[in-house]
């Protein structure tokens, strides 16, 4: 076929075509040549060539028919398009005419031209409906240019707003297919924002109307469905849903702020949000505080139930209450103390749960409160935290702990109040952190700041007063335990042995047990407190410890060897005092150690020792009182040397 095609030349001449075919065929020549003339071979070549020409003719014919059909189709489409354009132009011309007629008809008197006016109005309405229908069809076909043309014509008609409504309605068809309606709305508005300027002459107005439609119909319906179901039955879920929906709505509003929506888009979007949530936000804080109270009460009750504990009534005003308050402020034995079995009735888990609930309430309050109501609402939440955390939990534990402190003369008393102190300090740090992190930002620029600070100050002062009372009584109990040890273990013969030459011990058994007890209490105090509180309490314990040992030593008479043993005891007490790491306490025991030297020094050296550096500034009566404890004090020689 390729060979056959090559034989064609323009212009085509049949004789020349056959001549070229003969010359190309082997054995087809008539005048000599390498091969003799072969008529059979030439005939065969002609037959084959004719078949090829027939096949080629069929193919060309089919191609011609296909091209003719395509040409006819394109001609029809072109004609149709021309017709549509002509029709479109007639519509535009008709719209212009009917619009002018409509304006003129407004000026004509009705009684004379009622029929004319009616016909014009009817034609105006029909044409308007046709234009809107054309716009609808063009939008469905996605023909932006046609939509722009029709919208431009409709701009001067009353039905222009209906055209916008149709556009807004059709834009939302199939737009909400995901599970996230807010994300769907954002994508829809972004898509419309890109095309609305190509269709309408006032794109910002159309986009604003779309957004208004989305908020007032789609979002409002969704929010209502989500909130009304749990509004009365489940306050916790209601508050969570309200916070989540409001947050997502405001986030959507922030995204929409990027678009041109007219002059004051901030106010426009704020009004839309308010229209959705106003009925829920009006009483939000009442729902919030009501839920927080019931939730906090449940958390506390669940904790006390787990301890099989029935909360005592604190401060009822009865006789028992009066006794308890007197016992808390004095060391008078007004009956047995309450046995708490080592339970502090403070729970860090409870505290964390209460603070977490309050933190979430503060976050919701910040988001859902009107700016003018925010400080007042935050204060209401704070008062609930104070009520349940500080009063119902911490204060109750302090009162119970105080009631559980035994009297100072109790034997083998278990002192758990320091555990209460330790936990209360930890809890108050958490309370203070939430006050600073979550409450302060909500009230910092309002009069409620001073009110909150004052309330916090009062709470802290009340707690500190009870902690101080409990610590003071606990220290008295410690001293009481030391007294019991000394009374039980110290013997008169310890300091006035029958055989002065057969004393083998380095210090008395009473001293060993007292020091062991003191070291244990010092460690407990250090673990229970922090900062300057540790030094303050250890100083107070150290001073009382010194007074106890001082008065204890005053009860005995000392032989020379007994005096040496007393010095050894005091030296051990002084080692114990070093653990306090309080200079004053160590100084007191240094002085006591020096005083004990008066029990053993030779009579001739008494005046010299008394005028030494550690004793020179002491009152003479104190020095004399120690010298009088010597077994040989009544000897004329000793009295003469000390006078």
From TrEMBL:
Source organism: Catagonus wagneri (Chacoan peccary)
Annotated ranges, domain Exocyst complex component Sec10 N-terminal: 39-90
Family label: Belongs to the SEC10 family.
Encoding gene, per UniProt annotation: EXOC5
Protein name according to UniProt: Exocyst complex component 5
Coiled-coil portions: 50-88
Pfam family, one: Sec10_N
Keywords, in A-Z order: Coiled coil, Exocytosis, Transport
Residue ranges annotated for the Exocyst complex component Sec10-like alpha-helical bundle domain, each copy included: 93-642
GO CC aspect terms: exocyst
GO biological process: exocytosis; Golgi to plasma membrane transport
InterPro entries membership: Sec10-like (IPR009976), Sec10_HB (IPR048627), Sec10_N (IPR048625)
């Amino acid at each position: 076929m390729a060979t056959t095609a090559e034989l064609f030349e323009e212009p085509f001449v049949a004789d020349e075509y056959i001549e070229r075919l003969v010359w190309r065929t082997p054995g087809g020549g008539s005048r000599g040549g390498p091969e003799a003339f072969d008529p059979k071979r030439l005939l065969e070549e002609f037959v084959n060539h004719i078949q090829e020409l027939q096949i080629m003719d069929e193919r060309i014919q089919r191609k011609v028919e296909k091209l003719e059909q395509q040409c006819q189709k394109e001609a029809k489409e072109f004609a149709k398009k021309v017709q549509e354009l002509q029709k479109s132009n007639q519509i535009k011309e008709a719209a212009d005419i009917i619009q002018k007629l409509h304006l003129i008809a407004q000026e004509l008197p009705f009684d004379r031209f009622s029929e004319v006016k009616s016909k014009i109005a009817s034609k105006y309405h029909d044409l308007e409906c046709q234009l809107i229908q054309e716009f609808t069809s063009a939008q469905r076909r996605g023909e932006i240019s046609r939509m722009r043309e029709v919208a431009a014509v409709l701009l001067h008609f009353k039905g222009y707003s209906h055209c916008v409504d149709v556009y807004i309605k059709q834009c939302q068809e199939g737009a909400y297919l995901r599970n996230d309606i807010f994300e769907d709305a954002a994508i829809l508005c972004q898509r419309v924002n890109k095309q609305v300027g190509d269709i309408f002459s006032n794109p910002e107005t159309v986009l604003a109307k779309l957004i208004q439609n989305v908020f007032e119909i789609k979002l409002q319906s969704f929010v209502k469905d989500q909130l009304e179901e749990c509004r009365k039955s489940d306050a916790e879920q209601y508050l969570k849903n309200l916070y989540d929906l409001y947050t997502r709505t405001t986030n959507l509003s922030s995204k929409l702020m990027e678009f041109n929506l007219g002059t004051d888009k901030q106010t426009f979007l704020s009004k839309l949000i308010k229209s959705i949530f106003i009925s829920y936000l009006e009483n939000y804080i009442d729902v919030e505080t009501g839920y927080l109270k019931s939730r906090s009460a449940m958390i506390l009750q669940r904790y006390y139930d787990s301890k099989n504990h029935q909360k005592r009534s604190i401060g009822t005003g009865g006789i028992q209450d009066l006794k308890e308050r007197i016992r808390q402020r004095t060391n008078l034995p007004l009956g047995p103390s309450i046995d708490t079995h080592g339970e502090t009735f403070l729970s860090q888990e409870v505290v964390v749960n209460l603070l977490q609930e309050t933190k979430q309430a503060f976050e919701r309050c910040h988001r859902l409160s009107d700016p003018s109501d925010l400080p007042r609402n935050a204060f209401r939440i704070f008062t609930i935290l104070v009520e349940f955390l500080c009063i119902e939990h911490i204060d109750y534990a302090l009162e119970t702990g105080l009631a559980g402190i035994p009297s100072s003369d109790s034997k083998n008393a278990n002192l758990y109040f320091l555990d209460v102190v330790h936990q209360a300090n930890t809890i108050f740090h958490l309370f203070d952190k939430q006050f600073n992190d979550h409450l302060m930002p909500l009230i910092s620029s309002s009069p409620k700041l001073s009110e909150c600070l004052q309330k916090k100050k009062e709470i802290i002062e009340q707690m500190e007063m009870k902690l101080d009372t409990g610590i003071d009584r606990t220290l008295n109990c410690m001293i009481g335990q030391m007294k019991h040890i000394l009374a039980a273990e110290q013997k008169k013969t310890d300091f006035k042995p029958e055989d002065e030459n057969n004393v083998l011990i380095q210090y008395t058994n009473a001293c060993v047990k007292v020091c062991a007890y003191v070291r244990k209490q010092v460690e407990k105090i250090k673990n229970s407190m922090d900062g300057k509180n540790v030094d303050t309490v250890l100083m107070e314990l150290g001073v009382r410890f010194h007074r106890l040992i001082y008065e204890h030593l005053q009860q005995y008479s000392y032989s020379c060897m007994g005096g040496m043993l007393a010095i050894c005891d005091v030296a051990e007490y002084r080692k114990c005092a070093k653990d306090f790491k309080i200079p004053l306490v160590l100084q007191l025991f240094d002085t006591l150690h020096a005083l004990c030297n008066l029990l053993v020094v030779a009579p001739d050296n008494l005046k010299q020792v008394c005028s030494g550096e550690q004793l020179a500034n002491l009152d003479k009566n104190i020095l004399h009182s120690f010298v009088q404890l010597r077994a040989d004090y009544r000897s004329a020689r000793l009295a003469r040397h000390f006078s």
